[in-house]
TrEMBL record:
This is UvrD-like helicase C-terminal domain-containing protein. Keywords: ATP-binding, Helicase, Hydrolase, Nucleotide-binding. Transmembrane segments: none annotated. The lineage of its organism: Eukaryota, Fungi, Fungi incertae sedis, Chytridiomycota, Chytridiomycota incertae sedis. The keyword tRNA processing does not apply. SUPFAM superfamilies: P-loop containing nucleoside triphosphate hydrolases. Signal peptide: none annotated. Residues 1-75 form the UvrD-like helicase C-terminal domain. GO terms for molecular function: ATP binding; helicase activity; hydrolase activity. The keyword Magnesium does not apply. It holds the Pfam family UvrD_C. InterPro entries: DNA_helicase_UvrD-like_C, P-loop_NTPase, TRANK1.
Length: 135
């Protein structure tokens, strides 16, 4: 299910896969978030409304995706360079935790945990209602 298809819906758990990696915005654009990380000494671009216009669009999509989750939000992103600024910002605000294996690309918002059985049951519902596709 795409973010656009999920608009207006709500789920206990949401998994976002490569939302930042698949963004058409360059990795450099995402570095803008480092300006808001306390004590950051890494270089950050200056805000430019023309250059960062694509980032505004991507953030609207991210907002929609994040607000679909009632309890758990899991973000997995494979592009370490592109995801780094946003993940660093969320960590600095104590909004999320990363997995023990930083190379896994997994990032989890703080919330209640969900059982394996609940994931299986929800997956079966999505398959039955043809909301989720299999390969």
């Amino acid at each position: 299910m795409t973010v656009e298809q999920a608009k207006g819906m709500e789920f206990r758990d949401v998994v976002l896969m490569n939302l930042i990696t698949d963004s058409p915005g360059e990795a450099q654009l995402w570095r803008l978030f480092l300006k808001n990380v306390p004590g950051n000494t890494e270089p950050c671009p200056s805000f430019d409304s023309k250059k960062h216009n694509i980032l505004a669009t991507e953030l609207k999509i991210l907002y929609t995706a994040i607000t679909r989750a009632r309890s758990q939000l899991w973000i997995w992103d494979s592009d370490e360079k592109k995801r780094y600024p946003l993940f660093k910002f969320w960590q600095s605000m104590d909004l999320a935790v990363t997995s023990d294996d930083a190379r896994s690309g997994k990032f989890t918002a703080k919330g209640d945990s969900t059982t394996v059985e609940e994931w299986i049951r929800q997956g079966q519902i999505l398959l039955r209602t043809r909301t989720m596709k299999t390969h």
